[in-house]
Amino acid sequence: MSDTNASTAKRLLIPAMMLGLMIGGPVKGQGEKDPHRPACTSARCRKIKSFLKAHYCSKSPAGNGPDDGCEIRRPKEHATEIKVSADFHCEWMDGGRKCQQHGQPSSEVRNTLIGELRKLGLPSKATGQIGFTVWESAVAGWSLAAATYNHLAGADMTLCSVIVIIDQSSHVHVLRKVRFQKTNVDAPMVTTWFPIDLADVQGNGHIEIILEGDAYENHWLEVDAVQDGSFQTIFSGLGYFL
Predict the structure, then answer these.
(1) pLDDT tens digits for 71-124?
(2) In what order do the strands lie in the sheet with 129-137?
(3) Which three-class secondary structure state does DSSP give residue 76?
(4) Is 211 within 8 Å of 222 (Cβ atoms)?
(5) How far apart are alpha carbons 147 and 68 in whole angstroms?
(6) Per-residue pLDDT tens digits for 171-210
(7) What is the reported pTM?
(8) How far apart are CA 35 and CA 43, in angstroms?
(9) Which of 27, 147, 180, 190 has the fewest CB atoms within 10 Å, measured from its CB?
């Protein structure tokens, strides 16, 4: 190749490489798979997503989340057919974690939940706080019950949790669990789960479970369908990450 041709080729190559970087960079980022927000293309998925956005989403916070992301909000009140025996909720306020317990589970449900936490490694003399949630759905014929253990000591947070379904025969079916472990309070390396609501998200008369997943500055919604003590995640998405 002559010097003239080589010079011309070089002048053409440099802009082409720059264009490739400009095009390739964003496309690669957009194409990265998000395990918590898979593509939602079916009519069923879009219907569930629309219901969730209408009932459990506020404005999208600042961050690097999805374009249709949103800050997750708990309903102020549950549907009238849901009996709330106990409710536990935590949020960060004024630089600290504030938790509230409203109501208490029955002794039978409490013992069941503590027994499940023991299976996950909770010591019998643990000094932290245990929060309880018990929601009974008259329509579904089962109850959702959850227990969350938490203890803060400086920069360390020790935790474990369990979410179960208790059917009409008092059989316990574990929905989500987090084993007893210690992590950093400011950057926890563990995924936790919090009940948000029980609702008929598909409009077909069946009650589903709405959960919030939390994996350190990454929050999303999941919906689980319940049938004969087994569970199927039928939606995962929305929320936000920083």
Answers:
(1) 899 998 888 889 999 999 877 666 566 888 999 999 999 999 999 999 999 999
(2) 96-103, 82-93, 129-137, 142-153, 156-166, 172-184
(3) coil
(4) yes
(5) 31
(6) 999 999 999 999 988 888 899 999 999 999 999 999 999 9
(7) 0.83
(8) 20
(9) 27
